[in-house]
Design a protein that fits this description.
Elements: H1 38-46, E1 51-60, E2 65-70, E3 75-79, H2 84-87, E4 93-97, E5 102-105, E6 108-111, E7 113-114
Antiparallel strand pairs: 1-2, 1-4, 2-3, 3-7, 4-5, 5-6
Length: 115
């Protein structure tokens, strides 16, 4: 006689995960606008045709908001919680990869949320 299989029910998640960048710590989420994921960075680097040169027209380091204008005149409003607005002052040249939501400020890359 075989014994019946007893399936364990999945455990309920009782606490919601929170990103540490809201508390001033290192960002622990790879959601849009948070930490840049390695795969996201590699995909953006592997598709150079997706980059657009732009200039920062507005930056709010407290809120993390950035407004960039590409060379063809298109304006993009972006948000980043890991310091992109601190690195990119108004008038700074940047590069934006919209396909993978990556903002390049010099050699530094940021994951951005397009607002």
């Amino acid at each position: 006689m075989s014994t019946p299989l007893h399936r364990r029910p999945p455990l309920e998640v009782r606490e919601r995960a929170t990103c540490m960048c809201g508390n001033g710590g290192r960002c622990s989420s790879s959601a849009p606008g948070h930490a840049l994921h390695l795969i996201q960075e590699r995909l953006a680097a592997a598709t150079p045709a997706g980059w657009s040169d732009a200039f920062v027209t507005a930056a709010d380091p407290v809120a993390g908001d950035l407004v960039v204008r590409t060379l063809d005149g298109t304006t993009h409003t972006l948000w980043n919680g890991s310091g992109a607005a601190l690195e990119a002052a108004i008038g700074s040249p940047v590069a934006l990869h919209l396909d993978y939501a990556v903002l390049a400020v010099g050699r530094t890359r940021f994951n951005v949320a397009v607002v």
